[in-house]
Amino acid sequence: MGPEVANRLRHEAAGLLNCRREDLEDDTLEELASKVASLGVEALSRFRSLASTAFDFAGLEPNYGHRAIALLMREGLAKVISVNWDCAVERAGTQIGMTVAGITSVLQAQSLKSEVPLFKVHGCARAPQSLKITREEVDEPQTWAVAKVQSALTSGTIVFAGLATVGDYVSDPIQKTLEEWSGYAGALRIVAPALPPSWETVLGRRTDGSHVAASSDEFFDDLLRAIMLDCLAHVAARAHNLADLDAWATPMATGVDSLRTVLQPIPAHLILAWWRDGVVDTQAGRPFITDLAGQSALMAIALLVGIDGTVEAVGRGRRFCLRTPSQYLEIISRPGGHLTEIMPVALDRADRRWDDGAYEDARTISYVVIGAVGSFPACDAVADIAGADDVDNDIGADVRSLVRFVSAEDAVQGRLAG
Questions:
Q1: Packing angle between helix 216-245 and helix 268-276, nearest 10 degrees?
Q2: Quick one: CA dihedral 298, 300, 303, 308, positive or negative?
Q3: Residue 59: helix, strand or coil by DSSP?
């Protein structure tokens, strides 16, 4: 929080200002910075550098909220604007194989490639001179930051989480929008156990409908669970509709019901991570589980579950997995990739999953592959990949021989029946 950072910087600020630390005891971080700014650009630049390392902002370990945000960003379900300096969301992205770029300028935004943007309107600790630290800078940010907030306020539901104070660049666009579009209040949510006074001023009479009385962790947990339940419901509807039309799909319908029962008590972020983790990183920021591809992949998983009869969800974190009595179940997506190119990628992933402790024994590892090209082996055959010399792998040949590949497209079109 700002007061903690200010306390870490009072001694350095007193040195720059040539005064006693006690003279600055009541100053906020912004007030300290404004006083230092009066000494000139060089002094303020020094103060920014000191502020960027007052805590380990760049190396901050992600908490649950940061990890939930990264999962939402990877699935393309949220665009995120941050007023924090830390890099916890970026680190959370790295932990799930996604590159999150902290954007602090228009030039950075224009140079993006496959990275997923995180707009940091107060700057980033990795770029100390980008920090917006004086009161004037906080209340009068760059034009691009104002534009991002204004765009968010008019393009859908916007959620403010963990934002107790409101700069003018946030409050002014909200107030103007509310004045010009009275129906907008229904698309605004402020997540906090108790509504901060600054938000009461901004919202006026609209506080009851806009305030979500919850911590950030509680909110993100509920949000992820709602997303998972909705996606599972769509998969179930498709599977049952298919079973009503074609008898071969009956095991699929049975399997999806088993999956929903087993996954009901599982934390939603574990389900989302398992369902999405096999998607190539260049697809980060694009929908998968909410899209036809991801749901078809789960329908194929459901068919395998229905054929085997039972399924269980075991493990936590990177150890989480789904398994039946005969196989572990995984999804891998490399749109347009040839199966022969996907096989070594799957082997490497299986290797890492073994190292993480996700697999407790040598039962078959079944990869449902979505969006691939090439000829698949028979569904009941393991892939002949034990002799793949070009794959640097710690898994023994006996374990590698247990990996098999199943086409999701074949599964949902009935070509695995018989």
A1: 60
A2: negative
A3: coil
DSSP summary character for residue 354: H
What's the rounded Cα separation, in Å, for the pair 395 and 415?
Answer: 31
Given the structure tokens 């699935």, which residue do they identify? Answer: 75
Bridge partners of 161, per DSSP, are 191
One-letter amino acid at 283 equals Q
**CB-count burial class (<10 Å; 0-12, 13-18, 19+) for 316:** exposed
Write the pLDDT tens digit of every residue in 263-303: 999 999 999 999 999 999 999 999 999 999 999 999 999 99
pLDDT in tens, 209-223: 788 899 999 999 999
Query: What is the set of domains in the chain, with CATH numbers?
Result: 2-52 (no CATH), 64-215 (3.40.50), 218-412 (no CATH)
Beta strands in 209-320 (DSSP E): 211-212, 312-314
Residue where the block lists tokens 């990795």? 126
Predicted structure pTM score: 0.87
**DSSP secondary structure code for residue 377 in this structure:** P
